[in-house]
Amino acid sequence: MFIRSHAPISLLALTVRAVLALAILCPALAIAGPCMPLDALQPPHANTTDPTQPFYIDTSGLSGSGVMPIHDPHNPLYPPATDLPDATLPPLTKNGNYILGPTHTLPAEWNNTQPAQGRFIRLTLSSSPKSGYNPGIARDEAEPCATGVRNMSTSHAGDPSRLDVPGAHPAPWHRSVDIYIPPHTPTDHPLPFLIFGDAGDDGIYPGHDLFSLVDAHIKAHRIPPMVIIGVGSGGGDAQGSERGREYDTMSGDYADWVEAHILPLVEAKAHLHLSHNPDDRATMGFSSSGAAAFAMAWFRPTLYHRVLAYSPSLVNQQWPYNPALPGGGWQLHSPWAGTPQAIPPHPGAALIPASPRLPLRIWYEMGDQDLFYPVHPMPDGMHDWVLAGENLARVLAAKGYAYQFIISRNAQHVDGPTIDQTLPEALEWLWRPNPTPRHN
């Protein structure tokens, strides 16, 4: 759940609209304070004019039409991209940046699928000393007032990229884990698998039946026989929540938790063995779980080589704050916005440009109306989802990665029609052979 802002793009306009959703997004202080008027919530001294100064908010390429800001995919600051004819998808044999047309028709693969025929197992997990991530985290929500809001979280003094969340507190979590074994899947050898976050009945995957698509793709030899694993989030959203703690933290922690607590459980309950070959392991996610999909592969490349993500939150959502990576997911591709000239090994340096190329294969998508500044008190220059995707595409291309980046016209955050249009081909592209990386 994120704020979608109207245009024209001014910080004051964004602030007023952000206040309307503070009851969802802003944690409360432990002790109730006075009501603050709306004009007091305006972030002070936001930098929307000088790109040479810290925490610059880039509003170039944003249209003032429509319900939300619309990004121009041909913004000259973005890397070049190929416009595709409407209802056409990128070629399976190519890498690079592509722009989908505005009509997101349902491809034939969905019309030809049958109800999933495989074995489905649902498990329920709760926080405990043996489950990991114990205790969990939840946050108290803001209390609205007639003329403003009470108990709003704020940026750390002098650093708009660091959010103070005093309303966060220990809390239990509950989640489901879904296991799908397609029909005729052999169990006499370790199996490839795709694992995705935000699963379960409360998840945010808005597409058609993933399991039936996998059945059809395996039958047509478009992907190898594999197990599909869906892991529910720990609850809540963004900073101060268990979902945010797990998905937005830029480290190998979530991958380690999956390795220690989820995969052994899957093997035991489904009576099968999962492959340890990272080429046989794919991660997938949506919004913040898309960021987790990237983190699982980037920080644990010995475990995962394939990544598929829709509207991944490659922005500064990480919480608790980590001074070694002050820009969170933004720093996968771009320097921390507080130090425009960051040079390695400065903690504000971007990770991918400063590192040798990893043997990863990456497919991801952003909508042209994707999110822009959904967290009100953070005018930090690191909360534009489309800009994050474009910056990532630039550094992936420079390093020679196998990747496809899609910007979808007429598409919002985690856009259901775009997912339905692209997922059949994206899955096939994802599982193509991965070239051996050069070291640069």
From TrEMBL:
Superkingdom to which the source organism belongs: Bacteria
This protein's UniProt keywords: Hydrolase, Signal
Molecular function via GO: hydrolase activity
PANTHER family linked to this entry: ENTEROCHELIN ESTERASE-RELATED (PTHR48098), IRON(III) ENTEROBACTIN ESTERASE (PTHR48098:SF3)
Name of protein: Alpha/beta hydrolase-fold protein
Keyword Secreted: no
Signal peptide: 1-32
Keyword Metal-binding: no
Entry-linked Pfam families: Esterase
Organism, as annotated: Bombella pollinis
